[in-house]
Write a structure and sequence with these properties.
Blueprint: H1 2-28, H2 38-54, H3 61-74, E1 81-83, H4 85-96, E2 98-101, E3 104-109, E4 112-118, H5 123-126, E5 134-138, E6 141-142, H6 148-155, E7 162-168, E8 176-181, E9 183-186, E10 190-196, E11 199-204, H7 211-225, E12 231-235, H8 244-254, E13 260-265, E14 273-276, H9 279-282, E15 303-307, H10 314-324, E16 329-332, E17 340-346, E18 352-361, E19 377-378, H11 417-427, H12 441-451
Parallel strand pairs: 11-12, 12-15, 15-16, 16-19
Antiparallel strand pairs: 1-18, 2-9, 3-4, 4-5, 5-6, 5-7, 7-8, 10-11, 13-14, 13-18, 17-18
Length: 473
Amino acid sequence: MRNKFRNILLVVLGVIIGVFASVQFSAMAQKQTAPLPLDELRQLADVFGLIKSDYVEPVEDKKLLTDAISGMVASLDPHSAYLDKKALQELKEGTQGKFGGLGIEVGTEDGYVKVISPIEDTPAYRAGIKPGDLITKLDGVSVKDMTLDAAVKKMRGDPNTKITLTIARKNVNKPIVITLVREEIQVKSVKSKMIEPGYAWLRVSMFQEPTVEDLVTHISKLYAKNPKIKGVVLDLRNDPGGILPGAIGVASIFLPQDSVVVSTNGQLPESKAVFYARPEYYAGRTLNDPLAKLPAQIKNVPVVVLVNIGSASASEIVAGALQDHKRATIMGTQTFGKGSVQTIRPLSKDTAVKLTTARYYTPSGRSIQAKGIVPDLMVDETAEGDGINGLRLREADLSKHLTNGTDEVKNEDRLNQDEEIKLLESAKKYKPIEYGTKKDFQLMQALNHLKGKPVQLSKVKPEEKKNDETRKK
């Protein structure tokens, strides 16, 4: 029996070593593979054997090994992860801008899911779901105090599958129950409009594969109707990032050709790179330059970029590039500070590892990681202050976050206990700002700046600003 158990451990050890070797080979390509720590791998095999023989109930081999891989990768930093079939599919949907779902933009209110807007020509739109509707149940299960992310995942799913929504509507006495069939939803990451004569608002909510072409289309349409645009507000607030070519393309819209947009640095030779405002870096495989359709005026029009603590990764690349080249005034609050590169390394047809492989640097060589972009003009979300944003986490608050790589980032508490309690109380009354409207305080301050009028600045400065007094307001 002992020999049989020992043989099982040896087989498991061989499998683990094989997995490690194959992952290292695919990830390192021609780089020499590092020696495997055999003693530690034997210990891992011993633990595997103990769980199989002694745990209170049987556990599948696949679960143990998958969880071991997942835990190993997740221990590195907050953005490295093992991607199973579902997670890999969700990642692809996010970058491609399409997914199986209902077609509703949602938020939260009083613990329920609030419909911000149904997307035109989607199941939700055709079923008559209206802005302001509160979704109280999904397939009969209450969404009260369910996280918004969990509710969104429940509403998404494979096309041609059904889900039943229970809706509370203002001035309707009884709940409305609607069964919808999911379809493939195309999400547009770009919005635009003229805020007032001469001043355009361009909103990018996420950097996806179609983002650059979509933004070019929006800009061209605005200029076709308004040839004499005096200023542009590029709104990147709460934009969590996305694909690198999208960020390079958006920055290239406003920068001269061949300008440096961003650089990266890591262990692998291919991670040491500089990316320029050229079609080969943003146009994809076709190399047809979508920026060739742009009106020439966009290269010289005054620009304000709006950012906040929710602006991360690709958003910070764009803001940092335009700031370093002095092409735009960055306005709002300090960004999230996610300045690391994640590379997808396939393990099988349906699984992969998302691994942090480099750090991003702005054209002047500033590391974004754990610092973010400090705006030229610090402006709070409202005239009264930054509201609930004061409670939101930044990269430097995350456990196991990657260091800045150039100098130490001190992450001091931004609020004392009394201030936090006060802010939590005010957060209960908080209503999300509808971006792009006259009630959007930061947008109105951006317009003031473009017009040469006074701007109401924040009374609070980030820690990093104290060490950067050379930047002029």
